[in-house]
Amino acid sequence: MAVADAAPEDYDGFILWEGMLNTPDPAVRTLNQGYCTALETQLAAGASFDSSIGVFREVSRQAAVNPAGLTPIPLFPPSLTNHQVMVLALSTPTPGPISMPVPNYIQMNGSLAQDRLFFASEQRVFDNVVGRFVNYTPVVVTRDISCSLAGLVTKYVDDLEDFHGSLLAIGGGRGFGPYLDDQLAQFTGTSDKTLLLKPAFGHIDHFMTPDHRKFVEKPIYDWALRVLGD
After folding, report:
1. Where in the sequence is the domain holding 99, given as residue range(s)?
2. What pTM was estimated for this model as a whole?
């Protein structure tokens, strides 16, 4: 969205992938106003990076190497196994500027009681979260996103009406998906808008599902063929 806002006439199409920068929704704005203030305070104190996202990687690593063992991570109840902690961390809404930017937000849908993820391939989780996950996020990036979602910063979305191409939005109903209509509505210069919403998916279930090609690659391929031609 920020790229579209900065150069709206330079592109034939954009994909809005499970994310957002602006919404009139009061619950989202209120939630992110607190995050914006907290992140501004961190920056003023000299904090450059947020490493809390690394918790997801360590949780998944423990589940991969010793799923039945009790968790050694003090953030979680010591009676839970490493596998249960992974399911808990990925499928339960928790506060924080990275883990809960919108209400009801989860990383992947699952059940602690059933000790399983509903849609994600655990092997894909291990391969991608453990093997490739970025451990650090620049605080300034998280600040810009949170302050924009709070409605306090508009410079990333104030020229979206000048984009006249095609839009494809892909999202999960337990991630940013319920608010993707808000994002599409800000592109007032085009009527070519497609929203693919999976109501039960969490934030990264599209990426982690074993049906990745069906839910991600094929829709993008078909859209690109239509927009760009052969």
Report:
1. 52-135
2. 0.90
